[in-house]
Amino acid sequence: MGYQNAYNAYQRTNISTASQGRLVVLLYEGAIKQLNSALSFIEIDGKIKPGNIEKFGICIQKTQAIITELQVSLDMDKGGDIAKNLMSLYVYFNEQLTDANITHNREKINFVLKMMGELAESWRRIANSTANAPAAKVENALNIQG
């Protein structure tokens, strides 16, 4: 099995065995990766070489698809104000990225990238907390006998 096949198998296992919190982190990390890729296509003068315009657009579209996935995963009934605020942010992010895809606006991409990075870090802390651990681990951490 080649390196790429082994890496792909690792990624599939990583995703299929991840907790919900870790899956959210993986989505954020994917969006951040795509936004960084999109930024790499914008030259210092703010232009994109003709051969890279499609690649730039694909990175933005992939990011928007990830944000949409984050939107549909929100539990608006149980999530309260946090879910409502995240929904508003995600809608705003997609609006900014739609405009950035047309205008190649580096600042809008950087803004969304910064915010996604901050949200990813918050979700990392949540995903690593005992509140997100399987019940058996929580019981062990609390020294609860079964």
Distance between the termini: 43 Å
What's the number of extended β-strand segments?
0
Low-confidence region ranges: 6-11, 13-17, 138-146
Per the principal axes of the C-alpha atoms, what is the gross shape?
elongated
Please compute the radius of gyration using only Cα atoms: 18 Å
What sequence of helices (H) and strands (E) makes up the elements?
A: HHHHHH
Number of helices: 6
What structural class do the secondary elements suggest? mainly alpha
Mean pLDDT: 84
Helix content: over 70%
- Main β sheet profile: none
Share in β-strands = under 5%
Provide a brief overview of the structure.
With about 150 residues, the protein is mostly helical. The chain is built from 6 helices and no strands.
List its salient traits:
mainly alpha, 146 residues
Q: How does the SSE layout of this entry go?
A:
Blueprint: H1 3-16, H2 20-40, H3 53-72, H4 80-103, H5 106-127, H6 135-141
Folded structure, characterized:
This protein has 146 residues and is an all-alpha fold. 74% of the residues lie in helices and 0% in strands. It is built from six helices and no strands. The protein has helices at 3-16, 20-40, 53-72, 80-103, 106-127, 135-141. Helix 2 packs antiparallel against helix 5 and helix 3 (53-72) packs antiparallel against helix 4.
